[in-house]
Amino acid sequence: MAARGREAKRLGTTLRDEPRALPGELLELIRRAVRRIWDARGGGFYACGFVVTFVWMEINMLLGDIVEAESVGDFFTGQILEMFFRYFSESFVNGFLALIWPIYVIEFRPPWGFALLLAMYLVFAGFLKTPLENWIFGADSSQDDPVS
Questions:
Q1: Is 15:22 a contact under the CB 8 Å cutoff?
Q2: Over the stretch 34-47, which tens digit does the pLDDT of each residue have?
Q3: 50/99 Cα distance (integer angstroms)
């Protein structure tokens, strides 16, 4: 939590002092978050699937909240009030469900789901892994995470 607080403070300071640098700071924050997940999940096809699944579930959760809100003010008030209770618990559930992402692919249309999973692996290994690793680790020579 302290690291996340430092990240938020740094983003706030960037927004106040140099607003044009905020998109770059956000991209760097996202890159570091993906790097942490990548390292924690083994840094391969499974890690990539976890990240994609988790982001997909979080976006669906946020869009569902937006659709349910009656107004912009209602949305932001609801988000602030529910963030500590609902958002963290749903994000935890989304994280757990993202761990079992290959099952969702296989269940898509058995036995074609298994073939799809195999095709996804071949595309990942042949075309996506190297560019992803270059993006995650290539922007700086150190793989240290300065925030955590």
A1: yes
A2: 788 777 777 788 88
A3: 6
